[in-house]
Write the structure tokens for this entry.
Amino acid sequence: MKITFFGAARAVTGSKHLLEIGSKKILLDCGFHQGHRIESEELNRNFPFNPSELDCIILSHAHIDHAGNLPGVVKKGFKGLIVSTFATRDLAAIMLPDSAHIQKYDTQYLNKKRAKKDLPPLEPLYDIEDVTRTLEHFMSIPYNRQFEIFNGITLRFLEAGHILGSAQIELTIREKGHEQVLLFSGDLGRPGRPILKDPDMNAKADILLMESTYGGRNHEDNEEALIRFRNIVNKTYKLGGKVIIPSFSVGRTQEVLYYIHELVARHEMPDMPVFVDSPLSFDATEIYKIHQECFDSHMREYLNSGQSPFQFEGLRFIQSVGESKALNMDSRPMVIISASGMCENGRILHHLKNNIESNKNTVLIVGFMAQHTLGRRLLDGCKEVKIFGEEYTMKAGLEVINGFSAHADSDALVDYAEKVGKDAKDIFLVHGELDQSEVLAGRIFERINIEPVIPSMGETFEIQ
């Protein structure tokens, strides 16, 4: 068996890990690389493997950095199955068309500017027809159900607790009379978070591929994060400003709404409207409502009592472009939650360019920002940033709450490695910037005396 790391290697985006098992080629995830525009364009448009040679793609979850380039491989000849959980398939069915729409819209916007500079036009990576063909390749299986995808290769999905439908991918591989278990963590959630079940820790891996996004950092607890959020909102309200929250439409947005609902229920939220400006967020929230098999017991009890964290007074989901534009003409204090989460595309860019030059407003970062993204530049304190090619001066306040993160922190990742990988012969750390992966590798070695490997992009390992 060979493993080649074609994405999320010493980086946080673009998850793609190619397994060659006998004559079969299996790709774990097929995500978009996000970051430096020219580098991302190159990596997303040109695959380092032949998509037509892939036999199967197994998807850990529907986030764009794990699933966003599925239409790209279909466009270039992939004809196999895409295997996922049911909820992941349903989310992909709204997220991939949204990705195609955003590419079309952003490309049209950028091409108008490029035409004025006599630059050649850009083309979207894929269109809605490519997305439609992609969805025809999906096959879904439930959690904890063993399914033989090929002779000698059995798949099982285990709860990852990251977003709705997220899964660890367990492959039991029988080669030459020898059996071993490969486990890919996907993105792991935090134990004790609201809405979703905790990650399943019951697997026993011989080969472990695990994420390391927050390998060197721990998060504040939920209550501390909620108090900080309340204070930030109240401070901005008194200034008469807007709280702008870049947020992934799936997972992060629903969790932020859960916490705002908590403040409303406690009468600790000021009288200001909350706008979710992302049609995808509305659709994703509806899908959340129909997949109660993914919820923890507290969330199910919450819903059975007739309450919903996705409905409260003052909350409004924005659909049309006209309504979105109107928010930037509205001078009232408000909360605007909008995608994309790393500020690379979508409506959040328009809200940032219209609001960051006022010191009344606050940009609130509630998730990880990859290197070379606009979100990362804001997080790093850049005062002059480019949005749609134009310079803007950051005068708004900037706040960060890591307690809303959907990723396991350093302590949780070490616990995971100990529980599922203490007898592993190989541990590979992916989906993390090098400094975070190195800290986690050291902590894992101290705990279980196994030295993890941090693969480089394109590096191949042969597993005996």
Summary: The chain has two domains: 2-217+406-462, 222-404. The chain has 14 helices and 21 strands. The domain at 222-404 is CATH 3.40.50.10890 (Rossmann fold).
